[in-house]
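Appendix C: a fully annotated inverse folding record. The material below is reproduced so that readers can follow the format used throughout the book. The structure is listed first as tokens, followed by the designed sequence.
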């Protein structure tokens, strides 16, 4: 319970910062701002910014520098969900218990809301470099490049394309790993890597933290696959069975539920082991791995 309370506190902290990013008057049609905020504040877990901020904290880095990056990566994640739900993608009507963006605002505005969040993410991150200079600025730009690389064709978008191409096919574990590690894990890894860059983590420490995020990211997607089969629709806030509906290969369809649960347990154990040599500063990240691997939504 103590961990869940701490997690909720961090979620509220991030929500407040996201709200502040929209406080200023934006000279744009009201409908696009409304559509952006509709999905951004629809009840997300904020795992990516939490991962970034907690990694920075455990490395005793400068949180004031990391905040614009944390907000940016959550906007990028939200844009990807808006587009994922579109009729020509996963064609989902509900997410987090609410109608998906295109069901409320129409496909055209939903596409533009996603585009707008991606652009606003970059703008937010670049504004964060305003008062930086020298090595500090260089590290910040490097962190932005990591985030944008993980969001693009070499990361999330590449995984999304491979996911679409896998529909109506039986694919092997190598192809499935590619989809999981790019579509889902890439942004989770980028959250940790960006924090390591800002906080100037030692190479060995950075390697352990990135290995942790790699395993957590893969476990997150396998849990998603499990929940799509046996999850509760009311708890999930969306219909189950969308992978089967879209004829997608998943870890569950290839190996079954029990093997999938075993794999998640193995990944959680390995993730925690990666952190233990770093010390007690990683306790929250260890608890976060358990939360991700045991979640029901």
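Designed amino acids, in order:
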């Amino acid at each position: 319970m103590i961990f869940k309370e701490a997690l909720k506190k961090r979620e509220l902290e991030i929500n407040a910062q996201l709200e502040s990013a929209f406080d200023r008057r934006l000279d744009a049609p009201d409908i696009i701002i409304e559509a952006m905020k509709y999905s951004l504040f629809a009840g997300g877990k904020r795992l990516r910014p939490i991962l970034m901020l907690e990694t920075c904290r455990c490395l005793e880095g400068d949180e004031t520098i990391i905040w614009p990056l944390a907000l940016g990566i959550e906007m990028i994640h939200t844009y990807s969900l808006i587009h994922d739900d579109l009729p020509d993608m996963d064609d989902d009507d509900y997410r987090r218990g609410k109608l998906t963006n295109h069901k409320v605002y129409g496909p055209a505005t939903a596409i533009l809301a996603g585009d707008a969040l991606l652009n606003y993410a970059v703008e937010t991150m670049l504004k964060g470099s305003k008062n930086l200079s020298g090595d500090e600025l260089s590290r910040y730009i490097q962190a932005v490049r990591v985030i944008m690389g993980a969001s693009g064709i070499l990361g999330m978008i590449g995984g999304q394309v491979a996911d679409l191409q896998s529909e109506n096919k039986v694919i092997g574990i190598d192809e499935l790993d590619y989809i999981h590690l790019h579509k889902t894990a890439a942004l989770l890894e980028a959250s940790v890597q960006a924090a390591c860059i800002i906080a100037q983590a030692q190479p060995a420490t950075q390697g352990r933290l990135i290995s942790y995020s790699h395993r957590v990211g893969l476990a997150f997607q396998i849990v998603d696959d499990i929940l799509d089969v046996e999850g509760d629709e009311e708890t999930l806030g969306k219909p189950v069975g969308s992978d089967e509906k879209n004829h997608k290969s998943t870890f569950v369809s290839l190996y079954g539920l029990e093997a999938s649960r075993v794999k998640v347990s193995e990944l959680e154990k390995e993730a925690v082991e990666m952190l233990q040599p770093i010390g007690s500063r990683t306790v929250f990240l260890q608890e976060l791995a358990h939360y991700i691997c045991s979640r029901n939504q």
